Amino acid sequence: MTSSSSPLVAAAAPLSSPWRQFTRRFLRHRMALGATLFLLILCMAAILAPWLAPYDPQASDWMALASPPDASHWFGTDDLGRDIFSRILYGARLSLWVGLTSVGLGAIGGVLLGLIAGFHGGRVDTLIMRGADVLFAFPGMLLAIAIVAVLGPGLNNLIIAVAVFSVPVFARLVRAQALSLKTTTYVEAARSLGASTSTLMLRHLLPATLASVIVFFTMRIGVSILTAAGLSFIGLGPEPDVPEWGNMLASSRSLMMAGAWHVSVFPGAAIFVTVLAFNLLGDALRDTLDPKLKG
Amino acid sequence: MQSTMSQLHSPTTESNPATADALLEIEGLSVSFGGDHGDVQALEGVGFAVRPGEIVALVGESGSGKSVTSLATMGLLPDNARRTSGTIRYRSASGECVDLGALTDQAHRRLRGSELGMIFQEPMTSLNPVLRVGDQLTEAARLHLGLDPRAARARALETLGRVRIPAAERVFATYPHELSGGMRQRVMIAMALMCRPRLLIADEPTTALDVTVQAHILEILRDLQRQFSIGVLFITHDMGVVAEIADRVVVMQAGRVVEQNEVGALFAAPRHPYTRKLLAAVPRLGEMRGTFSPVPFPMPGEPPSEPQPAVDYTQPPLLEVEALQVRFPIRAGWLGRVTREIQAVDRVGLSLWPGETLALVGESGSGKSTLGRSLLRLAPSLDGRVSLDGKRLDELDEAGFRAMRRELQMVFQDPYASLNPRLTVGFSIAEPLLIQRRVASLREALPQVERLLEQVGLSPAHARRYPHEFSGGQRQRIAIARALALSPKLIVADEAVSALDVSVKAQVINLMMALQRRLRLAWLFISHDMAVVERVAHRVAVMQLGRIVEIGPREALFRTPQHPYTRRLLDAVPIADPSQRRGRRLDDEEPRSALFPKGYQRPAPSYREVGERHWVLEDG
Q: Looking at the complex, does the CB of residue B89 fall below 8 Å from at least one CB of chain A?
């Protein structure tokens, strides 16, 4: 500060790139590292499921119906004799796909609407945010049920239902930031250069909101996986024989009563650990990327 | 270090016989901050004392450690700071000596509320925006003195009176955002005084304020210090303010005390080279008397600069503004109806010639920034004619105006906020070229960006760096480079150097003047700093309550100010010479505002010519 007489001072100062700062802070979170490792393994397992799975997820072993875990079936089999471990591996593909795409769609919609609402203000803002308020007023699950009821059950409609329910969350988050960012001097400076509305929004507002969007994105994946599993559980997801974690839980209901614990514990644990891992990762990202969000 | 410290200590201990009666005595204080790159030493062996009834000024540029010293004293150091050695002894009202550095948080808080008062730099952020002024004032008194609400209120009103707040009852019931910066700072002082502290720590209390308000606040502080015989630790970077208010001066540089002495002796015979450098960089009002063209600041080790070329007033002006009006509606009541308006700019007219610098001066709320911003359509103008180079700007639609923006650029006050932290400096400079489609891609813009960086005294290699890697002065150079990218004819500089340290300020101003010589740029230089304006401007326009009250050639206006407001403004400028300290008459003139009922039209301004191109508003 005192010696800006020499323009070379900045060159001499130690360089600390934002990326390096981020990794240093992130590596301090032991739990987050564990969660990341788990999610990486899960992703690999989902991608490589056809090669990793010991059995065909649809193939029935008529000799072992609802058998408890043993050496040949690690997680046991369900009432139709299908290998639960293989079904969970295949189910990971569906759950991760549903989680990522639904939150992705919700985030794209929410971020755009939030940017427009925050930047333009006035009537546009009122319209978008009152719409968001209406969506917020529905319990999330009920809203998703309503959407699936209108569109019909199935994987794609499930994704759309969960996505719709993420839109207002992102819209509200981004709008609040856009509101405060649009009055910053650098946005005003760009405006004084003649920048168009889209330049201002996409170049100057959007990048500044990305950190918190990423944090929220991660946390929402957990919620979305849970919602999707819930919808499948009540029969609004894909076909009942598709190896989806919620589906597996639903079909295990009757066996659970009959004392076959493994049919519901393993799919349930898969949902639980995955959601927990995404939440832990989200918490860690929030602490490292966006310390301001910390409550 | 230790030996030089004791040498530095000796003159003060001799001239001030007893430090035993000191209210605050800091000795060998070292503080370090833990950071990502290891510990950073912020203070090293700092030592000085404050006696009752004495104002000690702690001066230095940004990063010298003066604020860390005050925070350590108040027990408000951030969590990652550690006191590595030294003591901060405070003699409390009961006569016992406590080490402020070793107190528990709770004990410190009790002391802070009752015996120590603190005034911060930013009156905008140091008051809680969601509480009424009155509630904030009475809170501390009720907490620490156990006053009942009625007594606390009486005391608050009395204290508001002491800091010369007119209509204390009304201010008591307002929220901070309804008050001007000067009023807020007075409220801050009143808050610090509520519990009648014995030691007041004022951290740059006048830096964010205009000169007349600053003079007022300084006068209030001095008055209060005399009345209550409180000790004041006054932290500032402004040598003019030091000369006005301090009894003793402690000069800090890079975390160390380099010199301390009585104010008169220090100004008359500075010993340390850094003190000499600081004093040399202070612009002094009246230095330019008899010089008609602006002259760059003399730089140590450089030949004296040529004055700026004279402006040819016979040719048509570059910018002509006539009867420009800007009003901001104030909504009130349940229905949010507009009942009143701020007439921020009221039928202002001015002209600016090519290659000329016109300074726009005035207090906060005078409308000077709004005028500059409305020229760039950053503030909505209601009415008026603006022409640039003979083209009417006010008649253009948004698209047409966007194309005209290349002729008209702006440099903002805060160099930390005016650059997007996520974009490289090179991109920020190239952005105007991309927006106005002068270049097709960033790659194509690079040669121009590098040339612009060189033009403002930076290295072309800096294009790939991010704003946080630069100091305030360098960032302002970058902002100037961005403004120059489209080769504009006129740049509006809105308090462009106000946030910079003195030595850096001089360099940036010299750069602005060099660019004017080279490119025949016209500057609309909006500033509250009269001493800087005296150096930089060809002509000066003085604004008050949305109107120009006096406009004329800088030399004539500074030598023979005609309007009473101009005279007040010039009178208020601190003089960097303690021997010329004068007992100022405290003008109790109630600060007026440009707030009027909706639709109210003030009588049209009329001007009297008092000299060549020198006009004065006829009041009433």
A: no
Q: Do B326 and B177 belong to one domain?
A: no
pLDDT, tens digit (0-9, with 9 covering 90-100), for B357-407? 999 998 877 888 899 999 998 888 888 899 998 889 888 888 888 888 889
Mutation pick from B420, B437, B439 vs chain A, by most beta carbons of A within 10 Å, is B420
Q: B207 and B243 share a domain?
A: yes
DSSP state of B68: H
Residues B403 and B482 in one domain: yes
DSSP annotation string for B315-346: SPPSEEEEEEEEEEEEEETTTTEEEEEEEEEE
| Residue B507 touches partner A, C-beta closer than 8 Å | yes
Which residue of A lies nearest to B404 if distances are taken between CA atoms?
A: A194
Residues B161-183 have pLDDT tens digits of 877 777 788 888 888 877 777 77
Q: How far is B319 from chain A (nearest CA, A)?
A: 17
* pLDDT the model gives residue A4: 37
Q: Is the pLDDT of residue B12 over 70?
A: no
Which residue of B471, B487, B495, B498 is the best one to mutate when testing the A interface, meaning the one whose CB has the most A CBs within 10 A?
Answer: B471
Whether residue B120 lies inside any domain: the answer is no
Q: Do A184 and B417 touch (CB under 8 A)?
A: yes
Q: Which of B194, B222, B253 is the last residue of a domain?
A: B194
Interface test with A, best of B431, B478, B484, B509 (most A CBs within 10 A): B431
Mean pLDDT of chain B: 85
**pLDDT, mean of residues B514-538:** 91
**Which chain A residues contact residue B458 at CB under 8 A?**
7
> B76-120: per-residue pLDDT in tens?
888 888 888 888 988 888 778 888 877 888 888 888 777 888 888
H or E stretch including B33? strand B24-35
Helix (H, G, I), strand (E, B) or coil at A281: helix
Q: Residue B413 belongs to what domain range?
A: 319-422+466-617
For residue B482, give how far its alpha carbon lies from the nearest alpha carbon of chain A (Å). 9
> A257 CB near a chain B CB, below 8 Å?
no
B16/B61 same-domain check: yes
Domains of chain A (ranges; CATH) run: 91-293 (1.10.3720.10)
- The string over B600-620, giving b where at least 16 C-beta atoms fall within 10 Å of a residue's C-beta and e elsewhere, is eeeeebeeeeeeeebbbbeee
Distance between CA atoms of B555 and B565, rounded to whole angstroms? 17
CATH number at residue B53: 3.40.50.300
Q: Which of A8, A9, A192 sits opposite B405 (nearest CB)?
A: A192
Q: Is-contact A180 A98, C-beta < 8 A?
A: no
Q: Are B64 and B35 found together in one domain?
A: yes
B 17-36: CB under 8 A from A: 36
B450 touches chain A (CB under 8 A): no
The total number of structural domains that make up chain B: 3
> Residue B399: closest CA among chain A residues belongs to which residue?
A194
User: Which residues are CB-contacts of B484 (< 8 A; sequence separation ≥ 6)?
Assistant: B409, B452, B455, B456, B491, B515, B519
Tell me, yes or no, whether B387 lies in a domain: yes
Residue B535 structure tokens:
């150096």
B537 backbone dihedrals φ, ψ, rounded to 5°: -95, 145
Q: In this structure, are B140 and B73 located in the same domain?
A: no
Q: Are residues B365 and B239 in the same domain?
A: no
Domain boundary among B194, B220, B249: B194
